[in-house]
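Input record (Table S2, row 647):
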Amino acid sequence: MTKKIESHLTEDRVIKPTKEFSKSARISSLAQYKKIYKESIQSPSKFWSKEAKELHWQKKWSKVLQWTPPFAKWFVGGKINASENCLDRHLNGPRKNKAAIIWEGEPGETRTITYAQLHREVCKFANALKNQGIKKRDRVIIYMPMVPEAAIAMLACARIGAVHSVVFGGFSATSILDRVEDSGASAIITADGGWRRGKVVPLKANVDEALKKSKLVKKVIVLERCKNEVKMKRGRDIWWHKAMENASTDCPPAQLDSEHPLYILYTSGSTGKPKGILHTTGGYLTGTYSTTKYIFDIRDDDIYWCTADVGWVTGHSYIVYGPLLNGATCLMYEGAPNFPDFARFWDIIERHGVTIFYTAPTAIRAFIKAGDHLPEAHDLSSLRLLGSVGEPINPEAWMWYHEKIGGGKCPIVDTWWQTETGAIMISPLPGATPTKPGTATLPFFGIDAAILDETGKECKANEGGRLVIRKPWPSMLRTIYGDKRRFKKTYWDDYEGIYTAGDGARRDSDGNFWIVGRLDDVLNVSGHRLGTAEVESALVSHPSIAEAAVVGRPDEIKGQGVVAFVTVKEGIKHGAKLVTTLRNHVSKEIGPIAKPDDIRFANALPKTRSGKIMRRLLKEICAGGEVSGDTTTLEDFQVIASLQKSN
Ligand code: WTA
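Output record (WTA complex):
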């Protein structure tokens, strides 16, 4: 099979869904997709209200959409509670005692939590939050390992109308502090630690460090996970199990407006300060519910596993909200993919009988490198559908995923979306869409995606341009928390009333979208978004550094690697020692994911006459050395020559 496919040019490899898959899929042919898509674009309100009606509304909306660009309100006048929809809605039927979460800790222990049990825990914890003085609209930071309690904490916040802001467990104390300050959080939910590659990540200690510099947080609730030693501050800190001791299991879901804020999630942009992306309730639930249903074609007997962390949007939409809204069984794994070795994922799939597996290209490339013998030693025949997210998947990785993991029979859904979009925007429907390795294919129902040129004209087939969404959609971000101006400027300034994603893309002659990469100063390192300015500002915060410019370079496993060009202050010696110091400094300021792979010292950075660093030139130097293109605006030609020499 491999041979037959590989003898074609990349663009010609078309992989159609198998007849068997299509037969039982919700959308079973391209013609059916096209028909519904066309109708959904002609009347998005009709499509989305049909989807929304499948959820439980405490009060029905009076208007589907109120659109005052760039501000949208969905299901205006409606009342809805996210946790009630994820939990209570399933308790009156056969799903009541079905597994909601199957969890595996890194050391190997497992837990299964049914919908009834999850409901009980969420109600109790919601009451515990109330007992700690947390109220509707309060912002609560969740900084936890990948344990069921992370989902319980999110759903408990949603139950009482508190706004959660999950901070990825790999972020540093400084990153926690920034998010506390920006969101005005009054409470943090954390754990003593979490397991990662056999070591304990000291989560509580990081929180303590962050809170030395902030007085906003009044309560810290600490889950006992690793039993590592922690200090508890009197009056501020309380153990999770203590807070739960006297909490009642009776907690009616709060009546919340459809536009009530559900969460804030911080993501990198092209300036130094991360953006607090605000998502609200009714529209977000509708988008995640509907996309999970159609794109993963999820069924009651599926065991669905998304390998993301709850600290990222993928964890929010496709570990917690989307799957639970659909009453699915979700597998959740705490640790690293290579602990104790790179067979861990295949072992988990085999032992738990995983049927749907959703992961990132960077992981797939690492698995390829680790060797085929690892998946080959495991029975992966339970799998029926595969997914990919976070960055473009290169055709080689796609084919390997298809054959070695999917046994040549599982469709792959390559899903394009963003923290800002809340839900998947472009993706194949597994029983309907013929795919080509490397393309996210076609837009989801109701999503008016297009590629525009600089003048706002739609690009012709195979012409590169900017990826935009021309109509509002329910799970769209509502604003950047506390910064409407930045919200407008970042996403809505290029074309009037049209959302600009910041990605470059093209459509082929079949209408498939091929994502090329970011157009702004955002890097995609192992599927994680990092702003070059964020890393630069971390570098210059070190006393030895005068200036820094950060660029990405192609990396076989991570997609992009981080390269920093720095100039040191007068009298500072540079060398291997300073490189280590700087790498650790960035790790402390942002988190280990932002550590530069390469730090190069320069006497000066290439700048335009107006003083702007010419990153394009630095990128070219990193990618191969030769500088091409226009350098006429360069202030000092000597700089390029010296940078090339230091290469
Ligand atoms: C990139 C992650 C190509 C893209 C859900 C986007 C992708 C950014 C894909 C958002 C994909 C995500 N194909 N590129 N299937 N999925 N991206 O906010 O550049 O962490 O703008 O959301 O990742 O990253 P974020």
